[in-house]
Design goal:
By secondary structure, this protein is of the alpha/beta class. It has helices at about 10-20, 40-45, 60-65, 85-105, 125-140, 160-165, 185-195, 215-230, 240-250, 260-265, 290-300, 310-324; strands at about 1-5, 25-30, 50-55, 70-75, 110-115, 145-150, 150-155, 170-175, 180, 185, 205-210, 215, 235. The chain has a domain at about 1-155 and about 185-210 and about 270-280: Rossmann fold. A 7-stranded parallel beta sheet has the order 3-2-1-4-5-6-11, with helices on both faces. Strands 7-10 form a two-stranded parallel sheet. The protein has a two-stranded parallel sheet with strand order 8-13. β4 (about 70-75), α4 and β5 form a beta-alpha-beta unit. α4 (about 85-105) packs parallel to α5. The chain starts with a strand and ends with a helix. It binds NADP nicotinamide-adenine-dinucleotide phosphate (NAP).
Length: about 325
């Protein structure tokens, strides 16, 4: 089959691209080329994966890419707003463009990656925009699937990457109290996406996905510290302080250490789904535990945060690259 993946150089989209290409499918990933993590390069060097550079605002480019595709995985998304890249622009208008382009190109199936607790009128622009994207997908003429994962981990992710680098940089963490999470291994998420896109299972379903291990977020941090052989101190702090750290990180960092939307996710815990009525069939239930083995497999090298993680320095480096 031929499958297009928006956000295909990102974490989940990239794992899906590699898995489908390795199974002999033809994969075209769509991205703007802004995401330049080493993981993106690895994905693009996989045999059977090609890239079309386009943003979600370019409906014509999306339709040209989707021509001849059997299925589309819509994995592009953001977790902080920068300039014109607002939640409404990327998640709502972007999803409308993706759905229209898929319908015009005669694509049969489309799977959307939403979020476990996406819902309307909850006071979080991230959650509300993901819900609006779900509604657009559900009202399409396509054979659609809406997947609502919680927190996903694995190689090339944001979770293990940021926690590892933070543990290698700072001796102290702000505690999230006793807030629970159910981390989902990216391999399990890809397995479910594959079932929807290739096998046509989960059609017209809105399905929550969480991992099999439930633990407090603070214990996840402690587990990573143990695997890394680092000592860390978790300090109780009011949630308002964590929001303030997230706002500062969004302003200053190329990829924020933690984003405001992520604090909101942790504040309300990443365990119980909202407005996700269709359970997974038993054979697709996630099986990978969150333990030292799965964590070690997804962890990057222990490299501390540095100046190039700051937006001001990254801009200068970009300008130097452009002049060269
Ligand atoms: N990771 C998780 O724990 C998690 C949990 C629940 C739900 N989700 C959802 O799952 C999806 C994938 O997450 P992820 O962790 O794989 O994200 P990711 O690693 O940040 O990848 C997202 C990709 O989307 C692309 N993108 C962003 N804005 C775009 C735009 N305007 N036009 C075209 N492409 C754009 C980016 O590439 P360029 O910048 O190069 O275009 C990026 O590589 C997201 O929608 C996210 O909300 C993720």
């Amino acid at each position: 089959m031929k499958v297009a993946i928006t956000g295909g150089t990102g974490f989940v989209g990239g794992h899906l691209a590699v898995a489908l290409a390795q199974q002999g499918h033809q994969v075209v990933v769509i991205a703007r080329g802004v995401d330049r993590r080493p993981w993106a390069t690895e994905v693009l060097s996989t045999k059977g994966v090609s890239i079309d550079f386009a943003g979600l605002s370019d409906g014509d480019a999306l339709r040209r890419t989707f021509d001849g595709c059997d299925a589309v995985a819509h994995c592009a998304g953001i977790n902080r707003e920068i300039g014109s890249q607002t939640y409404v622009a990327v998640h709502v208008r972007g999803t409308r463009n993706v759905v229209q382009a898929a319908e015009q190109a005669g694509v049969a199936r489309l799977a959307l990656l939403s979020f476990l607790r996406a819902r309307p009128n909850c006071g979080s622009a991230y959650h509300e925009s993901k819900w609006a994207a779900e509604e657009i997908v559900r009202s399409s003429t396509l054979e659609w699937t809406v997947l609502k994962p919680g927190m996903i981990f694995g190689r090339g992710d944001h979770l293990l990457d940021h926690l590892t680098r933070a543990l290698c940089t700072f001796p102290v963490f702000t505690s999230m109290g006793c807030r629970r999470v159910r981390p989902l291994a990216v391999g399990d998420a890809v397995n479910i996406l594959r079932a929807a896109l290739i096998e046509g299972r989960l059609a017209r379903r809105t399905t929550p996905i969480t991992g099999p291990t439930e633990l407090e977020f603070d214990d996840a941090v402690r587990l990573l510290a143990t695997v890394l052989g680092k000592r860390t101190l978790l300090l109780r702090a009011p949630i308002a302080l964590t929001y303030a750290v997230a706002r500062a990180a969004e302003l200053m960092m190329t990829v924020p250490l933690i984003a405001v939307a992520q604090v909101r996710m942790l504040e309300e815990e990443v365990v119980e789904p909202v407005l996700a009525p269709d359970p997974l069939p038993a054979d697709l239930l996630p099986v990978t535990a969150f333990n030292d083995e799965s964590v070690r497999a997804g962890m990057p090298d222990c490299s501390p945060f540095g100046l190039t993680d700051l937006r001001a320095f990254a801009k200068r480096a970009d300008a130097r690259e452009t002049r060269a």
